[in-house]
Specification:
- The protein has helices spanning about 5-25, 40-65, 70-105.
- The protein has one domain.
- The chain has about 110 residues and is mainly α.
- The N and C termini lie far apart (about 45 Å).
Amino acid sequence: MPTPTAAAANAYAALSRMGTDTANIANGLGAPQHGLGPSFSSVLKNVIDSVSQAAVKSDAQAQAVANGKANMVDVVTAVAETETAVQTLVSVRDKVIAAYEDILKMQI
């Protein structure tokens, strides 16, 4: 299972590739071709799933520490990974909202 940081990096890379493909299509350098890469919704779903898995992992670690079956360092690491993943998701959300607001401001 990939760590949340790796999942966030993969999501950024996928979004970057999608942005390059969109820029090439907008510039007339290529025709839109379906099926070349993951759709935005599937990338977003994968990122949300990885954040959810990280949260479940940190919860499980916290319960294990409460039962005396895990190390506190593992809990702190899992919580830090979850926090990083959530911060990444929030920043992507903010960028999407900003882009949507920019589109709304465009004159027709």
